[in-house]
Design goal:
Strand content: 25-35%
Distance between the termini: 24 Å
Radius of gyration: 16 Å
Strand order of the largest sheet: 5-6-4-3-7-1-8-11-10
Largest sheet: 9 strands, mixed
């Protein structure tokens, strides 16, 4: 049986997951949005930020999302930003399929991450990802436009949002342009911690 297709993101209270401009990534607002993750032991280990870090439920949830992921899919915008910012040992440690119009040979990084560039659409990227994943789960890593394409195409099984007490005011909204006539949600879990509220939903056809 094929694994599930899911995404997990941090989102501001007013619905944004990233600033509009790539130059603002790693800026103050984005750092505040992601602030719940940086103290965590798992994140510190995965990003090679040093030893130590916090245990607890936030750490467990971050690790669970990573552990269930056999393959990642991302859009070109996310890859372009990450190519400049990720450490040499990129934080995925899986095959990553990049949906793009650019033709490029696979790019292998230390630690088990290899980027594969797919030029013929989101369905092709998912087909290749499923083949690589076997019966394990595939994560749509981002960015927002790529997540929305998969959601509107009925290709997402479930998702988790870490709702952060931050306001953006503008930027990239997670659900801007969602086909609400086709997408219905079933709540799976709502779990508050000291920093964020983790919300999980199954996606159903309306």
């Amino acid at each position: 049986m094929a694994g599930k297709v899911f995404f997990s993101v941090s989102m501001s209270l007013d619905g944004f997951i990233a600033p509009e401009s790539l130059s603002e990534l790693m800026g103050q607002q984005w750092m505040e949005l992601q602030a719940w993750m940086f103290p965590l032991r798992f994140i510190r280990e995965n990003l090679s930020l040093g030893e130590g870090g916090e245990e607890g439920r936030d750490n467990d949830i971050a690790r669970e999302a990573f552990d269930r992921t056999s393959v990642n899919i991302m859009g070109k915008r996310m890859f372009d930003a990450g190519e400049q910012m990720w450490p040499e040992n990129a934080p995925f440690h899986t095959p990553v399929f990049v949906v793009t119009h650019e033709k490029r040979d696979p790019w292998e990084r230390p630690g088990g991450t290899t980027f594969h560039f797919v030029n013929d659409g989101i369905e092709s990227a998912l087909e290749q990802a499923r083949e690589a994943a076997g019966d394990r789960d595939v994560r749509i890593a981002g960015g927002g436009a790529t997540i929305l394409e998969y959601l509107n195409a009925g290709l997402v099984d479930e998702f988790t949002i870490a709702l952060s007490p931050v306001l953006f005011g503008s930027g990239i909204r997670l659900f801007e342009g969602v086909d609400a006539a086709r997408v219905a949600l079933e709540p799976l879990r709502a779990e508050p911690t000291d920093r964020v509220t983790h919300l999980s939903y199954a996606v159903r056809k309306r």
